[in-house]
Every structure is written in structure tokens, then in C-alpha cells.
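Summary for the funding panel

The consortium committed to producing paired sequence-structure records for every protein in the target list. Below we show the first two records in order, beginning with the earlier of the two.
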Amino acid sequence: MKKVLLSKVCLLGIGVALSAASFSLYGAALNISQIRSEAFLECIEVKDNRFDLSFIHSVSLTPVIDQYVITMEGEQLSIFQTSEHFTAHGQGLPSSVDEPDAYAFESKDGEFILKLNRAIPDLIVRTDSRFKNRLHTKGVTVNLNKWSDIGLHIVPIKSCQSGMKTVIEK
């Protein structure tokens, strides 16, 4: 009886610890500012701690999707790139698993997928309206070209502050 009770208490403790870890990340957000002036532009709530950046590659003129996850190390939020999806090889696109921080490269249904575990200490996106820059998070797509052809600094934060212009799932 004591062993069963002890096991249940341990499982409950582990469950609470995992829930607390998940809860601390749930509702993470991305602060977007202009790179040169650091002028705040928008805050975007991130669902499931994941987001994608999509664009048209400037050389191959084919779509690319970069996938990211927000992680927490202690109290510090970090961005990691988890994959890059594209349909054509070309200058500036990966061609093998020998790319930095890559651990797998596959071709599936006409798409190339480079799987990564790449820390992104400073996410800067240079927008150009010709290349349809978009940020996606579950249920939300943000047109990054609404700020005309500038560099954007994207920083993970715990949540959007009141008074910030925020984009949320509708």
C-alpha cells in the first residue's frame, strides 16, 4: 500500500513539474522591432512555442519555410531553428547534411528538408516585398512586408505587454 501511494505521489510530482515547465512557456511571444532604430513594431503571441518564417528565395525564386521553436533555459528564452523546407537546390540553399547544426537531410514528395538544431542568438529578417516574407504561428499569419523593405529584429519574450500592438489568433 505504501509503495503504491508513494508511486502515485511521485507521478503526481512529476506531472506538476512538467505542467509548470510547459505553462511557463505557454503564451510565449515575439517582439518585432526595426533593426536599425529598435523602434517597436508589433508583438505576436506564439502558440505551442513554434513559429515559421516563409519567403521566396531570392536566387531560386522558389518557396522556403524555416521552422523555429522557442525554448527556455533557466529564465532565458531562446530561439532554435529546427528545419528548413524548400523545393529547389540553388545558391544559398543547403545541399547536404554537412551544413552547420544539421543532423538530417531528406527528400520527400518533391520537397527537401534539412533538419537542424541551430541556436539563433539574434533573429534578423531582411524583408523585401518581392519575396513575400511571412511569419506563421498556429492559426495566425503575419505579413512581414507590411513594413516596407526593412530589417526586422525578432526577439522571444514571455508575453505581450498591455498597450503593445499585438497579433493574436482569431
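The next record, for a separate protein in the list, is shown here:
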Amino acid sequence: MEPFATNLRRRAERLGISNAEVARRAGLSDRRYGNYVSGRREPDLSTLVRIANVLGTSVDELIGMNLDEQVRTSEELFQERIVAAVQALRSDDLQRVAIMIEALACARNDAAA
């Protein structure tokens, strides 16, 4: 159980999100998720899949079955953080985010020209 709890904590830290935020996004109570993070309990399969989706990773990585520890660049970690955050947004929020990203890309292109 300990590798799973460690992997949960590590993955949330990499994404820059709190345990409370992971719990909220997965539709779990803070207490229930806290039991998983502390290693006191293990989730059922459907809950495990929801948590993996929130954390933008695979079930295999969370339970420690992926033996190849991937080294990620800072850009890849930022992209993972963005994807995990976007999955928690509603449609109207996604529209605003898309507009902001497009504006940033346009400004970057204008500055490079």
C-alpha cells in the first residue's frame, strides 16, 4: 500500500495541486482521499481510475507497476499540469482558457516577428 500512497502524493506535487483538490476533482471527500494518501486504505477499481484520470496518469503508474521511471522535462511537467487542470473545468471556463491561450500564442508570434 505504501508505494501507492507515495505515488499519489508525488503525482499531485508534480502537478502542483493539493490533496483536497484531487479529492474534489475525483468526487471524493477529503477524508476518504486522505485515507488513500496516508496508506490506510486502498480505493476500489472505479475510484482508482477516477483518481488516475484526475492526476493525468495511468493506474499502472499509481500502483507502481510501471517500472520505467520517466524523466520529464519542465515543459512536459507544465503540460501535464495544464491538462490535469483543464479536465476539471466546465465548458464556459474552457472557452475562456482557449481565448487566453490563443492570445498568448498570438502575442508570442508578434514578438518574434
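Regarding this second record: The mean pLDDT is 87. The chain is about 70% helix and 0% strand.
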